[in-house]
Amino acid sequence: MHEVALSTQLARAVTRAAGDAKVLQVRLSIGALRQVVPETLDYAWGFVVKDTPLADAELDIHWVPLQITCSAGHVSEPQELDFTCPICGETAAVTGGNEFTIIDIEVIRS
To answer: Transmembrane segments in this chain: where (predicted)?
Structure first.
């Protein structure tokens, strides 16, 4: 379960960014290729931040599907790990779904 390690790293980053402010919510963008189960990450977050200043902070996870684009400009969202353009058959590049990004940290300043 790598979600615990991700939650630990996330908590460190949020703590550094927020400083002394109380964190209410952390908004994340997580891509399908990261192989993160959002529910498991949320559970791990609760475990990691329990009894810390982040204990009341909630995660808001925005799921980003796998997206590929071929050189002809065709964009698709394959359901399988297939990087072949379904329109022209050309090998396509990943253009979405590899994210693990903090979008926003909602805080209250004292």
So the answer is: none
Q: Which two tokens stand for residue 52?
A: 């810390």
How many alpha carbons lie under 13 Å from residue 46 in its C-beta half-sphere? 6
Q: What is the mean pLDDT of the chain?
A: 96
Beta bridge partners of 31: 64
Residue 10, token pair as written in the block: 């996330």
Decide if 71 is inside a domain: no
* Residue range of the domain that includes 47: 1-64+95-109
Cβ-contact 78, 66 below 8 angstroms: yes
Determine, yes or no, domain membership for 79: no
Residue 66 DSSP code: -
Is residue 2 domain-resident?
A: yes
In whole angstroms, give the CA distance from residue 101 to residue 17.
13
